[in-house]
Amino acid sequence: MRGLTLLLMLFVNDLNMDIAPAWLGHMDADFDGIGLADWVFPGFLFMVGMAIPFSFSKKISQGATLAENSRHILTRTISLLIIGVLMLNTGRVNPELTGLSKNLWAILMYLALFLVWNNYKDKDSKFFTITGLRFTGIGALVLLVFKFRSGLPENEGSLITGWWGILGLIGWGYLVAAFTYQIFRESVPKSVIVLLFFLVLNIVSGLKFLEFLNPIKPLFGVLLQGNVPFIVLTGLIASLILVKSQKSGHRMIVQNMVVAGTFCLLAGLILRKWFILSKIEATPSWGLVCCGISFYVFTLIYIVTDVFKKRSWASFFRPAGENSLTTYLAPDILYYLIWMTGIPVLLYKQSTEPLIVVAGSIAWAVLMIWLTALLKRLGISLKL
Predict the structure, then answer these.
(1) Contact in structure between 232 and 317 (CB atoms under 8 Å)
(2) In a domain? residue 242
(3) I need a labelling partner for 116 at 20 to 30 A (CA). Which of 22, 25, 212, 370 fits?
(4) Residue 384 covered by a domain
(5) What is the domain range of residue 224?
(6) DSSP H or E stretch at residue 336
(7) pLDDT for residue 124
(8) How many domains does the chain have?
(9) For residues 111 and 93, what is the distance between their CA atoms, to the nearest angstrom?
(10) pLDDT in tens, 290-301
(11) What is the mean pLDDT of residues 309-323?
(12) Is there a domain that residue 248 lies in?
C-alpha cells in the first residue's frame, strides 16, 4: 500500500490540472470536497504510522535500547525536516542574487542529498570513500544554503521553514507517533488517548482558539495544528489492531479494520457540519474521512494478498514501497534537468485531450517506479 500511495503521488504531482479532470487533483482551499490528490498524502501518512510498530519491534527484538531508538527517531526527524525545508525553498531561488539558476540550485541540492543519505554498500570495506562522499554532500549543502537568496523581504531573503514541505510534515508526524510507540508500545487505549489529544488540537486550532500560540507556530505549528500527527497515529493504531487481531484469523482482522474505517468516516462526516473537507486547510473532517478511506483501501489489499493469496501483482509496487524516499526525490532531479535543458520530453502535458494528459502522467509514474528499481540495483537508495 505504501508503494501504491507513492505511485499515485507521482501521478497526481505530474498532472496538468488545467486539462485533467478536476476530481483527480486538489480541491480549492474553500471547497468542501476531496479529489484523488487530497487523499494520497494522508494515505502515505497513514502508512508511515502503520510501519512504526513493525520497524521498532524488530529493532527491540535485536536488542536496541530506548536511548538508541530515541536517537534514531530524532535523527530521522531532523533529516526529514532538513530535506523538507530545502525542497520547500527551491521555488524561492533568486538567480541574480544567488548566482545560480533555480534549476541548477535544485539539481545540485538533490545530488548532495543523495551523497549524504545514500544507503551505501560495503560500508566497512569502503569506510573512507563513503565518509568522503558524505562530507562532500554536506559541504555542498552548506555552500548552497549560504549562497541561497530569495530577494524577498521575509527572513532577509534566506531559507524559510514555512510549512516545512511534504517531508517536513512527515517528519513531525513520525516524531509524535514513533515516541508514542516507544512509550506505550502495543497499548491501543493509551495510543488512542494520544490520538484524541491531537484530534482535539486540530479541532480547536480550526476554531481559531489557539491564536495566542502564534509566536511559536513558525517552529511547532504542525504539532499545534494536530492534523498530521493524528493521521499518522491513526495508522499506528491500525497496525496495532492488525497485530492484536492476527491470532483470531482473517475474519477478525477484516472486521476490525472495517469497523475502524467506518468509525473514522462517520466521525469525519459528523464534523463536516462544522468543518469543510479541505486538505489545504487541514480540517479534522478531511483527516478523518481520509483515514477511513485508508482503512478501507488497506483492508481490500489485505483481502486480496493475505486472504486470497494473490500477491504476484503487488511485486510492481515493491521498489517504491521499500525505497519510498528515493521514489519521491529522484523524479525531481529529472524534472529540473528537463526544465533546465528545455528538452521537450513531457509533450503529453501540452495536449488539450484529458485522456492523453492522464495517460502520460500514468506512464511517467510507472517509469519513475522502474527508475527506483534501477537505482536500487546500481546501489543508489536513500535511507534516513
Answers:
(1) no
(2) yes
(3) 370
(4) no
(5) 2-377
(6) helix 324-341
(7) 83
(8) 1
(9) 17
(10) 999 999 999 999
(11) 94
(12) yes
